[in-house]
Amino acid sequence: MAKKQAQKYSLEFGKKEKVLNYACQTYQLSRPNKVGTVMALIRQCQPKTIQEWEQWYFENAHTDGKNTFKITKESLIELGIRLHEKITEVVIPEWQEAFHQLTLQDCIDYIHNLTINRTFDGYVREKSVVNDGLAQIYPAVRFEESPAELDHAGDIDYLGYVGEKAFGIQIKPVTAKSNFGNYSASERMKASFRDFEAEFGGSVFIVFSLDGEIANKDVLKNIEQEIERLGKL
Fold it and tell me: Is 92 domain-assigned?
């Protein structure tokens, strides 16, 4: 029996897709604080048709964050206008300048830097956060690197074992000028975190690293509470 092909409703933007995606991600125009937690919303809706989903979304969707507001067709149009402004006024001029300055040596150096330098920096950063930070704060927890064969390995850097259960740690780098308070995990990552919790019993915590130190100290209280919870299971 031939496999039934699911009908796709997504539009195709061709070569423009990369530009649209880059600008949308860079300026965070599709984050939950702009369009709501769309995957959670559609699961709540359980629509049978795209028309049913669209109607339900505009009737029920609110942004997720401190200053929430109801999402409307007009608010999505406004986001589209902002996206166009960012692309035409910022992205295109910046890229044109970069294109004119780009050299063969830049490309060679970039590949080497991405493969060797950044990988090593990330490795050292993770080791420092866990071995010099978390492992010292929670000596009763056994921390292990996420094995490559783990389904969630791309989103989980370390596992913290409390008995037979474990919580997950994702380590993200930040600079002194970064505002990690605005960071929001993607819907895909949230789904991966839920799968991890179902498998290992513990939640996943995002730890921001600044020069090998834990930048978001407030996460430690949440980790401590999770360790206590897992210890009682």
Answer: yes
pTM > 0.90: no
Could you say which of 102, 124, 156 is where a domain stops? 102
Tokens of 185: 């995990």
CA separation for the pair 93, 114 (Å, rounded): 25
Parallel, antiparallel, or unpaired for β 165-173 and 201-210?
parallel
Q: Taking the CB of residue 199, how many other CB atoms lie within 10 A of it? A: 13
CB-based contacts of 29, cutoff 8 Å, min separation 6 = 23, 79, 82, 83, 86
Both 121 and 165 in a single domain? yes
- What tens digit of pLDDT does each residue of 193-222 get? 888 999 999 999 999 988 788 989 999 999
Could you read off the pLDDT of 30-80 as tens digits, one per residue?
988 999 989 889 999 999 999 999 999 999 999 988 889 999 999 999 999
Domain that holds residue 209: 105-231
Query: Can you tell me the distance from the alpha carbon of 48 to that of 59, in angstroms, rounded to the nearest whole number?
Result: 17
* CA–CA gap between residue 226 and residue 138 (Å, rounded): 12
SS3 160: strand
Residue 5 lies in a domain: no
Alpha carbon distance 59, 37 (integer Å)? 14
For Cα atoms 22, 26, 28, give the angle at the middle one, nearest 5 degrees: 115
Which residue intervals of the chain are DSSP H helices? 16-26, 32-35, 38-45, 50-60, 73-86, 92-101, 104-112, 118-127, 135-137, 187-200, 219-231
pLDDT in tens, 135-173: 999 999 999 998 887 766 668 899 999 999 999 999 988
